[in-house]
Fold this sequence. Notes:
The complex is a heterodimer. Chain A is of the alpha+beta class. Chain A is built from 20 helices and 22 strands. In chain A, a hairpin with a 7-residue loop joins β20 (496-499) and β21 (507-510). The longest helix of chain A has 14 residues, at 17-30. By secondary structure, chain B is α/β, with parallel strands linked by helices. Chain B contains 9 helices and 21 strands. Chain B has helices at residues 56-63, 148-164, 178-185, 197-208, 225-230, 243-246, 263-269, 283-293, 305-314, and strands at 8-9, 14-16, 21-23, 31-33, 48-52, 68-71, 76-79, 82-88, 96-102, 105-109, 131-136, 168-172, 193-195, 217-218, 232-235, 251-256, 273-275, 297-303, 319-321, 342-343, 349-350. The longest helix of chain B is centred in the middle third of the chain and has 17 residues, at 148-164.
Amino acid sequence: MKAFAQLFLSLDETNKTNEKVKVLKDYFNSVPDTDKMHMLALFTGRKPKRYINSTQIRTWAMEVSNIPDWLFVESYQVVGDLAETMALLMPQKESTNEKNLTQWVAELNGLGNKTEEERKLWLIDSWATLDSQERFVFNKLLTGSFRVGVSQSLVIKALADITKLDAATLTHRIMGNWIPETYTYDQLVQESGASDDISRPYPFFLAYPVQETSDKNKSADEIQGLLGDADQWQAEWKWDGIRAQMIKRDGKIFIWSRGEDLATEKFPELHPFLNELPDGTVLDGEILSFQNGLPMPFNVLQTRIGRKNLSKKILEESPVAVIAYDCLEFKGEDIRDKTQSGRREILESLQADISYPEIFRLSALIDFNSWGELAEIRDQSRAMVAEGVMLKRKSATYQVGRKRGDWWKWKIDPLSVDAVMIYAQKGHGRRADLYTDYTFAVWDGDKLVPFAKAYSGLTDAEINKVDYFIKRNTLEKFGPVRTVKPELVFEIGFEGINRSTRHKSGIALRFPRILRWRHDKPKEEADTIDTLRALLGE
Amino acid sequence: MAKKPLLEFTDRGIYCAQGKFYIDPWKPVDDAVITHAHADHAYWGHKHYLAHNLSREVLLYRLGEIQLQTVEYGEKVMKNGVQVSLFPAGHVIGSAQIRVEYQGEVWVVSGDYKTEDDGISTPFEPVKCHHFISECTFGMPVYQWRSQVEIFEDVNNWWRSNLHNGLATVIVGYSLGKAQRILQNLDLFNGKVYTHGVIENTNEALRRNGVLLNPTERITAESNKDDVRKGIILAPPSSVGTPWMRKFGPYSFGYCSGWMALRGAKRRRAADRGFVLSDHADWDGLISAIDATGCECVYLTHGYTASFTRYLSEIGFNAKEVHTLYGNEEEDAPSQHPPEGEEFENGEVKVSPSGGDLEGAGRAGI
């Protein structure tokens, strides 16, 4: 655990990419192979089984810390991270131990056949042998919230440097359904033969936003400057569903979401067509809810994500289909190096042979001759229930991760309203102890009704100013939430708006965020609920 | 009518009506008793100042021509029949707690303080009193300091490894207090200590006051960059990220502050290294200091006042949160951002009426 805790600390201590890679390499070079695989599993979101839940950890940590519960809770609000709070509040360690990461994870996994009392004793004993940094990392393991500020691509880069394998190969080899107890480091770094695991997906190729980091969208002329002539490109609608990779190998089917969750059972409607595909086929596309042949807004699909059981009612109300836009494997062969157009032909031929064309749909290519023409077509995105258009270079290979160059997303401008901030709550992580999570309201007569929460969009300097305002203009406190004097006005942007029965305001927004602080607007000039209703189309 | 308390909290500062003087007032008054020379405790514009001897030169340097009387710790000064004396607060060189006595009733104003002996400020001394007005900047149990011996071992190791890796070393701390504490604990076998002008001005003021400090060299336009890169650069928070600092790159920059105890705060400041080093008392320090006064009543000013007051009440203290003094704020310091702050020449910002010294307050370009 010492080496792993030190890894965490060292990664925290630098913002420089090269330094981070060096730290990762030092770690890989200094720990046993099994620890390497456990570290990889953790850094790519593969958590050990949890036999102790957060409530238990919290309760036992409070006992050990010997402070009143309310003070523990307030400390958590200050620190903004439960694992760290617990680590800081516990007494100093009484002894040391030299268990490595593999041994710790094995103990965690061994808790399955222990009683609750035994688990508690094990945990308290473990805490007593760890210093506060080790304890913090150990708590992170326990609570399963493992964010390290290191992207997977950095880990891969370090590993690639050490093993002399290329990054794309390694990225592929750590995809999918493996566990560190059985997948060995030797298997990972063997020279050839990427996959003996038939469920393993390919890394997703992700598009880059046309407007890059700015909020302002680009004109057709600017697109010409950025991408060159329109005839080198194919365009499709940008669908707002669940990005998924669908695999048929050896008579078995697998559906992977972009978050690398195996979601095969969540989408039974797709099984018949997937079973009909030839073995050795991998498709990339978007899963959406459909009604009368038209995609439905994302919030309809959202109602069935996360459900353990798909009731008949849900399957009726929100039936899904897939809009496929790429083919990565055909006849058992990795075809990611073929051109976009080449893969498209194969995709079309596969779809032509299927007996479920309503379920296996093709993402239609948009017919256009110039960027200006496409810009006009793009204005109809909302009517198409799309977020904008996708641009793919006809000669593009299917690459790994978010790469600038061959795949671009050209989203439509967000909808927006001016709203008043009325509640605030402290953030987490690097925003701990700062008020960064806000609730916004619009006018309904002379009342302000909350309609959206937003966390992002302000600069650090602006956050400091808003935080300063909140701390001096608090009307009431409800636990961690403060009611703030309504005064500050912000422009809130969002991708979509829908009616909702779960929200007080009766509406739900898709991807709300702060576009800008309207210093120029007094609160009286913020928008009204009627503005929002108009956007709903009522 | 109830008896008027000896000290009261007004919109100008802590006031003694009987003695007709204020303690650390933030608006101009006739007679001010100053706990220490940090900008949010020693404001400009009072007619008469009383402070500790070792604050003299720094106060004159920072505030210019002022009418200043200074005393030793324990020396008694009478103000309209009220006895005033200063006791060590251990916060920075020359920092004091103010003891006020009238007709057998004793009040003590802590100013800012820490209980660990930093080897350079006169160590904190508990003073028996009936009423104790205490800061609680770090009044949450998550703040528990390691001893400075351990911290400086980390600092010196970090400096050595920077030398080894060809990096310059910049260590950042508040110009009065932290800077000298760092200076006195650096391992000078590693190299020379180079100072930013603001810090060197403060060092010179302290040396005029007879304080013995380790040798330093002021960084000027003529300084040889390569020499400086082989030593260590002692710089104030306001210099972080400025062209002044960047010209010494590539460097590793370490930030010394109590706020570095939390990962989030550390990441916000984007320091290469965060050293948890504070001139304020930690959780245990605060409680032991308050306990040692034997006071009947403790008033909590700047810091996590609400939570700390509640906790003290639960463990049996008669504790009161003071709202009027520093503006009803229990968590001022980590983020505080005075939008209309007034810049001093050295980049420290005058905040009124807000609490906390400006240690690590994280503004000034961080």
